[in-house]
């Protein structure tokens, strides 16, 4: 900082050293940010779980319940029809 406040102006080598140091810090920050963004994009919390299998199973169960309900209604309807004849 003393170099930058010199009345004759800073030496070119000092300015270059500060710029080089600044650019190294910027490169380090950029690399860290790139790695963080990449890891965030690759984050898949449900990748190794059985979520889709469980949902598919629940859907199949709901379909079976619906079919059973309709068959029970058909059976009731047939019984009522046969009793009426």
From TrEMBL:
GO biological process, one term: regulation of transcription by RNA polymerase II
GO cellular component, as recorded: mediator complex
Subcellular location: Nucleus
Record bears the keyword Transcription regulation: yes
Subunit-level organization: Component of the Mediator complex.
Annotated protein name in UniProt: Mediator of RNA polymerase II transcription subunit 11
MF terms (GO), sorted A to Z: transcription coregulator activity
Highest taxon of source: Eukaryota
Physiological role: Component of the Mediator complex, a coactivator involved in the regulated transcription of nearly all RNA polymerase II-dependent genes. Mediator functions as a bridge to convey information from gene-specific regulatory proteins to the basal RNA polymerase II transcription machinery. Mediator is recruited to promoters by direct interactions with regulatory proteins and serves as a scaffold for the assembly of a functional pre-initiation complex with RNA polymerase II and the general transcription factors.
UniProt keyword Nucleus present: yes
Recorded family membership: Belongs to the Mediator complex subunit 11 family.
Keywords: Activator, Nucleus, Transcription, Transcription regulation
A Pfam cross-reference name: Med11
Main location: nucleus
Organism in which the protein naturally occurs: Aegilops tauschii subsp. strangulata (Goatgrass)
UniProt xrefs under InterPro entries: Mediator_Med11
């Amino acid at each position: 900082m003393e170099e930058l406040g010199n009345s004759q102006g800073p030496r070119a080598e000092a300015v270059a050293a500060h710029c080089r140091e600044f650019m190294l810090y910027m490169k380090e920050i950029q690399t860290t940010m790139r790695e963080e963004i990449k890891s965030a994009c690759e984050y898949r919390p449900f990748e190794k779980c059985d979520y889709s299998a469980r949902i598919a199973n629940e859907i199949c169960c709901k379909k079976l319940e619906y079919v059973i309900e309709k068959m029970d209604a058909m059976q009731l309807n047939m019984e009522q029809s046969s009793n009426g004849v």
